[in-house]
User: What shape does this take?
Amino acid sequence: MKLTLACSPCPNDTFIFDAMVHGKVDTEGLSFDYRLEDVETLNQWALAGQTDICKVSYGVLPLLVSSHCVLEAGGALGRGVGPLLVSARGQRPEDGGLEELTVAIPGRHTTAHMLFSMAYPQATRKVFLPFHAIEDAICSGTVDAGVIIHESRFTYASKGLVAWADLGSFWEAETGQPVPLGGIVMRREWPRALMARTDRVIRRSLEYAWSNYPELPAFVRAHAQEMDEAVIRQHIELYVTAYSLQLGPEGRAAVWRMLEIGSRLHPAPQGGAFEVFL
Assistant: This one.
C-alpha cells in the first residue's frame, strides 16, 4: 500500500524518515511517495488535504483537528528548542518599540508565529517568508528583525545577527512544558489500525537512524539547507529528542496546551469534539 508523505528537507525530518522511505527497515507492507517542502507549504498542504501523512507546525493544529490525527512518533518537541527573535541591531527596543518594527515570520500558520504572537501581541508589522530567506532579509535591511527556526539557529551569529528573545524560553516560563514545534498528522479517513501501523514504521525508522548515528545518510546531506556537517549534527541532536520516538503523556499535554492557546489566538469553527491523538 502506498501513502503520500510530506516533510521538510531539514535534517531532523530527513534523519527520521530516511530508513522508511528507502526501504532500510520493515515497513509492514507500506511504501511512501515522499515530498519535501518548506514548513508553511506543508501546513497549507495539510489544510488542503493533499497528503496522507504530513509534518506540520503544531501552531496550525486548531485548523486540522477535524480532519487529521496526531501520531505519536516523528515530531519535534523539547526544551531549549524554540524559535529565536533576531536582528542586525545590537539591542532590542523596549517591548512597545516592537510595534514600529517590521518582523519576518516563517509562515502564518507556523508555531513560530503563534509563539511570537503570544510574546508580542502588539507587534503587527509582519512579513511572512520561507524560513531559509529570513536571515538574508534581516541582513539586507528588508526587515528590522525576524523569527528564525531550523538551521538558522546555528548560523545567525556568524552572519552578524544578535538574539533579542528566545520564544521557546517564553513558552516554557509561561507553561512549564516543553515546546511543541511540529508533529506528524494523518488524515482521519484512514482506519486507526493503519495509523498505528504507520506510527510503528516511523518509530522503527528513527530507531534505525539512531542505531547508525553518527553516520549521516545521503538523504540528510542532500537536502540540508546548511551543508556544514557540524551544523547538520547540531540540528539533529537538538531537534530529534525522546519525544520524537513517542510523545508520551508529557508530550501530549504540551501539544494539548498549545492547541488550547492556539484556538484562542486563531479561533476556527470546530463543528464537534475530536480525539486529537492516535
Q: What stands out?
A: The CA atoms of residues 235 and 248 lie 22 Å apart. The chain has eleven helices and eleven strands.
